[in-house]
Structures are given as structure tokens and as C-alpha cells.
């Protein structure tokens, strides 16, 4: 977070300056209206008012809008779980994602699987599950660092012929830190040298103890290549989702996270968005990270044109003035003018922050030379 004065912080938190000053006094800090606050104080105060400030996160209009729009419990409806697949290199994350999709998406569905999309939805027993194809841990970490908790359940893939490896541990630590429930998919069980018991044994060291051994971690043996265990894995995902009681309010302006984005030659900036709250509609004025625009067209995960996307739905969107980044937040505004104003403001602040960072680096370099 950058520095803010007391008055600026008050505005961001939609509180009065005297409320902020009172809180500061409670922390033993005497401050006036125009005093600049350090990061720790900003975080403490924001926290006191129920707003979490994560590292590098700027409290700005996007967050404030979200803060103001607390949901009425009556508006909340059940939503699909959002699942990320993580694990060590070559343990079969991509193959498993493909396998689930192949098993579950029928050819009769118009359009079929026509293009790559960083997220998709399948149906099991009439219930939907959303899978995110995050390109490795980096994206997951970025999303988390920005406070964008997009994942409800993590599938930890461990190859039964290879066992627990460094990135397995990294992945499970990420999931634990984010307090996301973990389901272990022991993959490649079709292989001759597969040893699922060894995987269970090794994971107990990291407090992932199978139910059969008195723990509470769900383990499912799968084979991403022949589809074995995929139905059971989906059932377990639905079971965990039910326990989590995942809900969202579909009847407000949409808000969510960028899964991936790129510049398409013909269509311009194209972003895959995960709607987390509200319903996104064609024509909506929108701010996405440091970009903005109006939703021109939306495409579903199977390449169908859609006009609306509700909570937990991934959708490909065009109509932005630039390419946002994976992990960026998006928010729909009531009118285009406001979206433009906020989008431009964010872009300017982002540039300023970058410039500050660059000049700081060069100063450090200078001192190093002396
Ligand atoms: P990275 O994205 O590089 O981290 O790898 P990944 O985890 O996505 O692994 P990927 O799906 O690319 O699979 C790695 C290799 O393992 C490929 O050659 C797959 O065909 C193979 N593989 C994946 N799952 C299985 C499985 O269930 N059984 C067998 N026999 N091979 C598998
Ligand atoms: Mg892969």
C-alpha cells in the first residue's frame, strides 16, 4: 500500500477523519488530518474497520465499492465451487484437467470444445463445478497477494510413481496459507510402479492424513489418461463444496477476478473473467485492473455467445481498452463515465507507483556505488 494521509484514508474507508484519529489514538499514535500514515497504521486501521489490506494492494475505488456493497443474506444463492489444480511439474495437472473436461463435456453441447480457455465448468449430478487452469503457482500467489481469493478448493495432484516433490510441498503450503480445503488426487495410478500408499505416507508429514488413517483429508486415486477415479473426484469436490456452503449474490453488478488475458489480433484485448459476485451482462460499463470499457461480447467456456454470466461462471470478454493481468479485479459500474474515470485514475496511479519504484531502485544503485 502506498502512503495516505489521515483524511485520504478516512475517505477511502468512508469514515470521518475523527473516527480515524480516534483509532490512531487507540494505537498510541497522535496524528492530524494531513499527517501521512505508514503502511502498518493503514493496515491496522483498515483491519479495525473490517477491510483487509494485503501487501502491494492499494485501497481505491474498486475496493471501496466492494466494501459498500455488502450483501443482504436474503440475496445469497448457492454457487458452484471454484477449483484449482496444483502440484509438482509433470505430475499430470494439465492431463487431469483435460481428462475431466473430456469425461464431462459431451459432443452434443453446441460448439463443443473449440478453443483454449483458462477456466471451464462441468456438471456432475446436476451440480456445476468450475475449474481454473492457473498457469502454475505464480498466478495463484499473485492472486492471493492481491487479496483475490478466487479458489474454493485445491486439488493437489501427486503422481503415484514419483511421490511428494518440492513443488507438491510448495503447493500445499500455498493452499494452507490461503485456508483453502485440499483434496489429494493421487494420479498415474495406472502405472505399473504406482505406489499410492507411499504418497499417503509422505503427505502425513504435512498434516494431510487420509480418512482411513484417522485424518480428515480426502484422497482419491485417479488416472488422468484413462479417466479412472474422475467421477469419484468430482463427487468429493461436490461434497467439500456442500460443507463449505458456497454462496453469492447474483442480483447485483458483477465483480470478480481476471483468470487470463491477451491481445487478439482481430478482437483486441480479450480477458477471461471469473464472475464471483453479481451477474455480468453484455453492455456493462466495467473496470478491469487498470483497464476499462464496456462489455462488447461474452463467450462461454465452450465457445458459445452468452449475454449474462452469474457467480462462479468463467466468461471471455471483449471491449476493454487494454490487456489486464491475471489476478486483477474487475467491477461493473452503473455508468460508463464513472468506469472511465476510475479506470484512468487507476492507470495513472499504477504508472506513478512504477515510476517511484524505478527511481527508488536507481537511488539504491547509486548508494551501492558510493
Ligand atoms: P507441468 O504443467 O509441466 O507442470 O506438468 P503437468 O503437471 O501439467 O503434467 P502433464 O499433464 O503435462 O503430464 C506430464 C506427463 O505425464 C505427460 O506425458 C502425461 O501424458 C503423463 N501423465 C499424466 N497423467 C497421467 C496418468 O494418469 N497416467 C500416466 N500413465 N501418465 C500420465
Ligand atoms: Mg501442465
UniProtKB/TrEMBL annotation:
The keyword GTP-binding applies. Signal peptide: none annotated. One of its GO terms (cellular component) is cytosol. GTP binds at residues 87-94, 133-137, 187-190. Residues 81-229 are annotated as: G-domain. One of its GO terms (molecular function) is translation initiation factor activity. Residues 78-247 form the Tr-type G domain. Keywords: Cytoplasm, GTP-binding, Initiation factor, Nucleotide-binding, Protein biosynthesis. The keyword Nucleotide-binding applies. It is found in: Cytoplasm. One of the essential components for the initiation of protein synthesis. Protects formylmethionyl-tRNA from spontaneous hydrolysis and promotes its binding to the 30S ribosomal subunits. Also involved in the hydrolysis of GTP during the formation of the 70S ribosomal complex. Belongs to the TRAFAC class translation factor GTPase superfamily. Classic translation factor GTPase family. IF-2 subfamily. This is Translation initiation factor IF-2. It comes from Natribacillus halophilus. The gene is infB. The chain holds residues 144 to 513 of 720 of the full protein.
Amino acid at each position: 500500500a502506498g502512503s495516505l494521509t489521515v483524511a485520504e484514508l478516512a475517505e477511502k474507508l468512508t469514515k470521518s477523519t475523527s473516527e480515524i484519529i480516534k483509532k490512531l489514538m487507540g494505537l498510541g499514535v497522535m496524528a492530524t488530518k494531513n499527517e501521512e500514515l505508514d503502511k502498518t497504521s493503514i493496515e491496522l486501521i483498515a483491519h479495525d474497520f473490517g477491510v483487509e489490506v494485503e501487501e502491494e494492494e492499494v485501497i481505491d475505488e474498486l475496493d471501496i465499492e466492494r466494501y459498500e456493497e455488502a450483501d443482504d443474506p436474503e440475496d445469497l444463492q448457492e454457487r458452484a465451487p471454484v477449483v484449482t489444480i496444483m502440484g509438482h511439474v509433470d505430475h499430470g495437472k494439465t492431463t487431469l484437467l483435460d481428462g475431466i473436461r473430456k469425461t464431462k463435456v459431451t459432443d452434443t453441447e453446441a460448439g463443443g470444445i473449440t478453443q483454449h480457455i483458462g477456466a471451464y465448468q462441468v456438471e456432475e449430478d446436476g451440480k456445476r463445478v468450475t475449474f481454473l487452469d492457473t498457469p502454475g503457482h505464480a498466478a495463484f500467489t499473485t492472486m492471493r497477494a492481491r487479496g483475490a481469493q478466487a479458489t474454493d478448493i485445491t486439488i493437489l495432484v501427486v503422481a503415484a510413481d514419483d511421490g511428494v516433490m518440492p513443488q507438491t510441498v510448495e503447493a500445499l503450503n500455498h493452499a494452507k496459507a490461503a485456508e483453502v480445503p485440499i483434496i489429494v488426487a493421487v494420479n498415474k495410478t495406472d502405472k505399473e510402479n504406482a505406489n499410492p500408499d507411499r504418497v499417503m505416507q509422505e503427505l502425513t508429514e504435512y498434516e494431510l492424513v487420509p480418512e482411513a488413517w484417522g485424518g480428515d483429508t480426502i484422497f482419491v486415486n485417479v488416472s488422468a489418461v484413462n479417466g479412472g477415479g474422475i467421477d469419484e473426484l468430482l463427487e468429493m469436490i461436490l461434497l467439500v463444496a456442500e460443507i463449505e456452503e458456497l454462496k453469492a449474490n447474483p442480483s447485483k453488478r458483477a465483480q470478480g477476478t481476471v483468470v487470463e488475458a491477451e491481445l487478439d489480433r482481430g478482437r483486441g484485448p480479450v480477458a477471461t473473467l471469473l464472475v464471483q459476485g453479481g451477474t455480468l451482462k453484455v453492455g456493462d460499463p466495467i473496470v478491469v485492473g487498470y483497464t476499462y470499457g464496456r462489455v462488447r461480447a461474452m463467450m462461454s467456456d465452450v465457445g458459445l455467445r452468452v449475454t449474462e454470466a452469474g457467480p462462479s461462471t468463467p466468461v471471455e470478454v471483449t471491449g476493454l481498452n487494454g490487456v489486464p493481468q491475471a489476478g486483477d479485479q474487475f467491477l461493473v459500474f452503473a455508468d460508463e463515465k464513472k468506469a472511465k474515470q476510475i479506470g484512468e485514475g487507476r492507470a495513472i496511479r499504477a504508472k506513478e507507483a512504477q515510476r517511484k519504484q524505478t527511481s527508488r531502485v536507481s537511488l539504491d544503485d547509486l548508494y551501492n556505488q558510493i
